[in-house]
Design brief:
This protein folds into 3 domains: 8-112 and 179-216, P-loop containing nucleotide triphosphate hydrolases (Rossmann fold), CATH 3.40.50.300; 114-176, no CATH class; 221-395, Rossmann fold (3-Layer(aba) Sandwich), CATH 3.40.50. It is built from 15 helices and 16 strands. The protein has helices at 19-28, 42-51, 67-76, 85-88, 120-126, 154-161, 179-184, 199-206, 220-230, 255-260, 263-279, 296-299, 334-341, 349-361, 379-391; strands spanning 8-12, 34-39, 81-84, 102-107, 113-117, 134-136, 142-144, 165-169, 172-176, 187-192, 212-216, 231-233, 287-290, 323-326, 372-376, 400-403. α9 packs across α15 (379-391) and α14 crosses α15. It starts with 7 loop residues before the first strand and ends in a 5-residue tail after the last strand.
Length: 408
């Protein structure tokens, strides 16, 4: 894999096609550079270190018992580092000087914009008119008025001091990773699939990262068609139902739907997933289901227990699962959508939802090129998947697209 001469390069490849393996080989062949390699999960660190044993991972076995402190220590020594998305997000504006000679490698997109919910009582405390802790600027960013505050919201206050939180309503803020941290790196490489309309894509556009180059595989259409041929997608007979006949229409199965559903409605989902697994004659250890984490136990089908989060990415350990059930209808948080739109950027909810679905599907046996049974209960999500498969018959994508520079 050749790294291209742009400040941000995105290698956009369908899963299990060697993005990570090729990048590890590229790093091995370019030992004169310094790297910060960021992976989604702790379990992925071992894979990187087995290929690059000289890469160091931060631990809490140091003077103050904090991984963040150890991360800064080994970066300041100029060592090559592998760490997780969550620890990467703890870097502060004060840490910029030690990052300037590093190449940042992001294995999968990292969450860089997130909604934060606070209770009405906490909001009254933070904006109390007599003794306020926070105030709002004209651009809705927040300031800390009470510098000596040491209460239960100290962690949030420290983030606000760094200028990363924007007011949306009295009970909803938006957290955004400081873009100057990204700018401090010598180069940024992102390994993912369907980067466009991801949160990281919106973030780069909001913060005027104009020199982002995306390179695509010229085999993508072939691989998508292969996916469609290997997956046995269940088609419900009743196409107009929210009554539990394997098909939920409209916004059914969204997070708000679950929140407002009664126990009987959710029990129907569990029963239908169980019925589908049995219909496929799937052994319990070859099945996988997902829902929103708050309802994991409610949806769990009797006799089939293996759950995988609906936002799972970059995980390889479920490649033996041959029968999957997807019971959610994904939408971005409305406060997050409003925040992005207020920056003059159009949000494509369907494209984002489809990318999340594909990532989850590819945790199963399709990842190993093996046949797989698939139940997608939301009509919207199922239609997005089918349109993606069908479009591969016609799509003609340029191999390289560069945004901001006018090149293609």
């Amino acid at each position: 894999m050749k790294t291209l001469e742009h400040n941000v390069t995105v290698f956009d490849r369908i899963m299990s096609q060697g993005k990570s393996s090729n990048m590890l080989e590229t790093v091995k062949n370019n030992p004169h550079r310094k790297y910060l390699y960021v992976v989604p999960l702790l379990s992925e660190i071992e894979r990187v270190q087995s290929a690059l044993p000289y890469f160091v991972t931060p631990t809490n076995r140091n003077r103050d018992g904090r991984k963040h402190s150890h991360l800064l220590e080994i970066l300041s020594r100029g060592e090559n580092v592998v760490t997780t998305h969550s620890l990467f997000r703890m870097l502060h504006i004060e840490d910029l000087s030690i990052l300037k000679d590093y190449v940042l490698i992001l294995d999968e997109v990292v969450n860089v914009i997130e909604p934060l919910q606070v209770s009405e009582d906490d909001s009254k405390l933070l904006f109390n008119t007599d003794y306020p802790i926070l105030s709002r600027n004209d651009d809705n960013t927040l300031n800390v008025i009470k510098d000596d505050y040491r209460g239960k919201h100290i962690a949030e206050i420290e983030v606000i001091k760094a200028g990363r939180i924007t007011y949306q309503s009295d009970t909803s803020f938006i957290w955004m990773y400081d873009p100057d941290i990204f700018r401090a790196f010598d180069k940024i490489i992102v390994l993912t699939f369907r980067f466009q309309n991801s949160i990281l894509d919106y973030y780069f556009r909001i913060n005027n990262f104009n020199d982002v180059e995306i390179t695509y595989s010229d085999r993508e259409d072939f691989l998508v068609r292969k996916t469609g041929n290997l997956i046995n997608l269940f088609e419900p007979k009743n196409k107009d139902s929210n009554k539990g006949n394997y098909n939920w229409i409209g916004s059914g199965l969204s997070f708000n739907w679950y929140k407002n559903a009664d126990k009987k409605d959710i029990a129907k989902i569990s029963n239908k997933v169980r019925s589908y697994f049995r219909r496929c004659k799937a052994p319990s250890n070859k099945t996988l289901y997902t829902t929103f984490s708050d309802y994991e136990n409610d949806v769990k089908p009797k006799g089939f227990s293996e759950f995988l989060s609906h936002n799972a990415k970059a995980m390889n350990q479920h490649g033996d699962k041959t029968t999957l059930a997807y019971t959610v209808n994904r939408f971005l948080n409305p406060y997050l959508v409003r925040f992005i739109q207020n920056k003059g950027i159009e949000v494509n909810q369907d494209d984002w939802a489809l990318s999340e679905l594909i990532q989850w599907i590819y945790r199963g046996s399709i990842r190993r090129g093996k046949p797989m049974n698939l139940l997608i209960m939301s009509e919207r999500m199922r239609n997005l998947y089918k349109a993606w498969i069908d479009a591969s018959q016609l799509k003609n994508v340029d191999n390289i697209i560069t945004f901001g520079s006018g090149k293609k």
